[in-house]
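hey m, so remember when u said the tokens were messed up on ur end? i reran from scratch. heres the input so u can diff it against urs
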Amino acid sequence: MKVKNIILTGGHSGMGLELTKILKREGHKIGLIVRNEKRKNDAIEELGDVPQLDFFFADLSKREDIKQVAENIKIKWAKIDVIFNNAGVLLDKLYFSDYGNELQLEINALSPYLLTKELLPLLNNAQNALVVNTATGDLQKKKSIDIPHLKKPKKFTKLTGSYLDSKLVMVLLMNYLNSKNEDLRVISVDPGAIKTKMTAGDGMPFWLKPIRNLFFKSPKDGAQKLYYAAFTKKHHGNGIYISNDTVKEIKITLNDKEHNELFA
């Protein structure tokens, strides 16, 4: 397999760490975006301090950090073949970002879009560049979005409320970016129900935790789904959403007005 330059967010723990291990075994050059030195050290403890691994630092809830980390990557790397937008949060109550948006929307949707947009010059330097986004299930069931409600919800519901909405908006934004940059391939992948720190936390509804402990799959299973979606040719297409190993149609698209409203 040809060695690729791969940027990964959320690659220091859980499913992202397992994906990093796969990419390391394949011999790819990997850039992990982590929040701080502690997370870097946690990753090194698991992965080893190897020459093919670079670390870049950013708090992905901060747009100035996103701009800065993109500049730091541009200084060190000449191209990016693949970006895995894997980092995300599942919150227990309503929080807001520095920009006045519901925090899951900011971190899970706006942040990966802004990061990918900032890194477009390096993606454009690669042949057949690919962006893989970690999505979630049932996004194909959504028929519309309410942007004012997404940004400032009047009611908070764990998991099936703002979190699910944030993942839908991530997919819509990435497909919007793809529509403006047709040489870039974008896919979004639902890895399924996975046992991670996130799904063990307070953001999970209490009634789901026993089910999680019994039936959710391991981080390795989720990592393999992300990997296979990126590196096999089973699912063709651009702007596709893969769930349960099947391409499913998301019925919503973003227009320019809606895109601008998300960032207003």
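this time it looks ok to me. The CA atoms of residues 186 and 239 lie 5 Å apart. if urs says something different then somethings off w ur setup not the seq
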